[in-house]
What we know:
Blueprint: H1 3-13, H2 16-25, E1 27-30, H3 38-58, H4 68-77, H5 82-109, H6 118-141, H7 145-158, H8 165-173, H9 180-212, E2 226-229, H10 230-255, H11 281-289, E3 293-294, E4 297-298, H12 299-320, H13 322-325, H14 331-353
Antiparallel strand pairs: 1-2, 3-4
Helix pairs in contact: 3-5, 3-10, 4-5, 5-6, 5-10, 6-7, 6-9, 6-12, 7-8, 11-14
Amino acid sequence: xxxxxxxxxxxxxxxxxxxxxxxxxxxxxxxxxxxxxxxxxxxxxxxxxxxxxxxxxxxxxxxxxxxxxxxxxxxxxxxxxxxxxxxxxxxxxxxxxxxxxxxxxxxxxxxxxxxxxxxxxxxxxxxxxxxxxxxxxxxxxxxxxxxxxxxxxxxxxxxxxxxxxxxxxxxxxxxxxxxxxxxxxxxxxxxxxxxxxxxxxxxxxxxxxxxxxxxxxxxxxxxxxxxxxxxxxxxxxxxxxxxxxxxxxxxxxxxxxxxxxxxxxxxxxxxxxxxxxxxxxxxxxxxxxxxxxxxxxxxxxxxxxxxxxxxxxxxxxxxxxxxxxxxxxxxxxxxxxxxxxxxxxxxxxxxxxx
Length: 354
């Protein structure tokens, strides 16, 4: 069977003409901010790499407190290129979260969330939150002493939320403390529940982007903006950026493979100078600057509550920013977006150096 016969076989059964028409008619705005468009596609590419490397690691990983740490060590030392797959998965997660943060803040500052794209923003922020939880749940799976202590601190912080914090902590841990039950629960989150939610949100997010089309920055609203065809112009640039980031990912994975500590011991004291992953440092630093007691209330509870309210406000910004929705300048929300960005960067740096 030659290629033409294969093409005919599919053409008789599926309507490819409408798909060809869609690709030919798809144009996107061209302007000096267009480089930021490519980070959405790059995020999708990094998600796909995480799924592929995760599938490979799941074939050999054992989600049991007695064997989890040893199974990771076996992947690193006994499997052909097992160390490389683990390193790609580790560094892929760091790059993915970094790119997602960048994509989120550029969307915020360019006001691309404005009417009618509110749900694109909401689904994107939810994906950022889920990706961070992917990082936390995956971190525990290596079951070494640092991961154990970090998850104990993180889930303990969730317990500081008023009203339902204690229930949330017990739900995450599967009990009062971090145990083998927590490992089982985090494994279920990491390989089953979170991937299902992620696939749904990604499909929803992309469908909405296709439905509404690419936005233009608020400063270009109402002005004449050139358009370029998505295929092949934009798609080839997408591929080029994916290739560059794949090179960065492989370089980091080969030169800086992640370490693996001693098997977790629930009765051992936590390691000295332990710090969370970089994307939790702003929260870690925020908790440190709050005193033990604020107006008679527990300082940690006040800090966690304020951060939770700030994240909720961040999620709902498109519904509060009425001026942007009407195509008018919105300096207040530019200042708010800048404040979020500066606060995150400054607190992350302080968390590193102190």
